[in-house]
Amino acid sequence: MKKILILVNRTYSNKNSFYSGLKSLLPPEALVDIAHFEDITIDIDGKNTSIFIDDKPILDYDLVYFRRAGREFLWLAATIAIFLEFHGRKYFDSTYKEIGPQGTKLTSLLKLALGGVPVIPTFFCYKGNILKSAAKITEKFGLPLVAKDLYSQRGIGVHLVRTIKDFNDLITKFPNDKFLFQKFIEKKEEFRVLVVGDRVGSYERKTSMDPNEFRNNVSLGAREDFMDICEISEEVKDVSIKSSQILKIEIAGVDAAIDVSGKVWLLEVNRGPGFTYKSAKSCEVASVADFFVRELAKNK
Length: 300
What we know:
Elements: E1 2-8, H1 17-25, E2 30-36, E3 40-44, E4 50-53, E5 56-57, E6 63-66, H2 70-86, E7 90-92, H3 105-114, E8 122-125, H4 130-141, E9 145-153, E10 156-161, H5 165-173, E11 179-183, E12 187-196, E13 199-207, E14 223-226, H6 234-246, E15 251-259, E16 264-271, H7 284-297
Parallel strand pairs: 1-2, 1-6, 6-7
Antiparallel strand pairs: 3-4, 3-8, 4-5, 8-11, 9-10, 9-11, 12-13, 12-15, 13-14, 15-16
């Protein structure tokens, strides 16, 4: 029996004219299900990354049709398309996989995880399913864990979840945010690596000056110490360059960390990264200028 999944962005029922018409015209051995995009959950865990419709793996289906995604679910359709493409499943329309910079943090993390980059284990569900999934999330990641708004920047929209009650507080205080949840990593060091093309342009350590602050964002008061590029570890360098290449971001601000056990983690890859202009030790702008010169020389 072949299974088909139709994903829609509106309330649906078995009386949906497209759905009922399709069922009547397909051969009896074809099973058709219809679901809403809000029924999707995504569990990012390296090559074991999975996507579910409620509790059913999306890979149980032979074909997925994004009937309508609309503006609200465009990024999610694209994220699912990338996953299906990786696993060789049929889906329509194939244009969704080409979303580019309109994707979210979740889209990027899924791409990186499938590409073999060490991404922090991540779980996503829509806010209507957060409380229902809270026990599952805490069982998977333990407490504390991190909640990130999909569109967070400079540490704003990133929260530490210490108790089950905090899940409800997130929904109440930030009703319009869409959150992904991540395992809390106890970091030994955190770095910002500027990747320009196929090489590292600058390298800095970021350190929070507040012992109660888990975020190492310079915009939130963290100290930045620019370091000699030759001091960067090969693993951090390789992860940073590979991540920017997977996402096709030629000028990328890559945030990476080393945990207390010595494992390297990719935190985030930023397009249009912020630069430090006042520090004499910063070579960020100079490295971008050198990159432009190298690229212009290729046109001669």
